[in-house]
UniProtKB/TrEMBL annotation:
Any Gene Ontology biological process: methylation
Lineage top rank: taxon: Bacteria
EC number of this enzyme: 2.1.1.-
Cited InterPro entries: rRNA_ssu_MeTfrase_G, SAM-dependent_MTases_sf
Source organism of this protein record: Sphaerisporangium dianthi
Lineage, highest ranks first: Bacteria, Bacillati, Actinomycetota, Actinomycetes, Streptosporangiales
Major site of localization recorded for this protein: cytoplasm
Protein's name in the database: Ribosomal RNA small subunit methyltransferase G
HAMAP family xref list: 16SrRNA_methyltr_G (MF_00074)
EC main group: transferase
Length: 229
């Protein structure tokens, strides 16, 4: 059976997750993903029928792992998943959508304006370009890169004690094992699998949560200063 290219009605779970002002914003964002998002190639046509379950709700539950009043950078934000969704459900969080491609940042800017999200900024660029310029409490990422590469991009942007929340699927445990050497190199405090969204989404979402030790960028700077003395 061919999948419908029409946006389905929101499931009951959506009203439980997107409450108050988040509800009309979530509906409007779903329509933007199903319309301009598909037309511009940011989302595949087959994904329209799964926008609520697979994308919006799956991203919204990541908010369970985000501390209050955090400054969050969404690396490789793409169509705004999970960054825009997190900004919708967590107005206390300041969200930076970081994306290198112009057509995507244009879409993100349009979404931010349409949804009136005053807790969001859109930056065109790559993570490595922000090292030494910006520091965040949280870095989020979804379907951007394998964990070993994601560590190299995200950890230099995190304050000591900040955390990477990487949305991963069935290979989460395997990717975590494969990144052991990188985790040791960066001196992280901890790395673990976290399940969010129990009772809200089926199946629950799996995150790899990595808590940063001393920023690799600042550690390198400190080592250079010590060698000069």
């Amino acid at each position: 059976m061919a999948e419908s290219d029409e946006l389905p009605d929101a499931p009951d779970a959506a009203r439980a997750v997107f409450t108050g002002e988040a509800w009309p914003r979530a509906r409007a964002f779903a329509e933007m993903l199903a319309g301009p998002g598909v037309v511009r190639g940011l989302l595949g046509p087959r994904e329209v029928s799964r926008i609520w379950d697979r994308h919006l709700l799956n991203c919204a539950v990541v908010a369970e792992a985000v501390p209050e009043d955090a400054h969050l950078v969404d690396i490789g934000s793409g169509a705004g998943l999970p960054g825009i969704v997190l900004a919708i459900v967590r107005p206390d969080v300041s969200v930076t959508l970081l994306e290198p491609l112009l057509r995507r940042t244009t879409f993100l800017e349009e979404c931010v304006e349409e949804l009136k999200l005053d807790n969001v900024e859109v930056l065109r660029g790559r993570a490595e370009e922000l090292v030494g310029k910006r520091v965040f409490d949280v870095a989020s990422a979804r379907a951007v890169a394998p964990l070993d590469r994601l560590l190299a991009w995200s950890l230099p942007l995190l304050r000591e004690g900040g955390q990477l929340l990487a949305m991963k699927g069935e290979r989460a445990a395997e990717e975590l094992d494969d990144a052991t050497r990188q985790l040791e190199t960066y001196g992280v405090r901890s790395a673990e699998l976290v399940t969010v969204g129990r009772g809200k989404v089926d199946p629950p979402a799996t995150l790899v949560r990595v808590v940063a030790g001393r920023s690799p960028a600042r550690s390198a700077q400190g080592a250079r200063r010590r060698r000069k003395r």
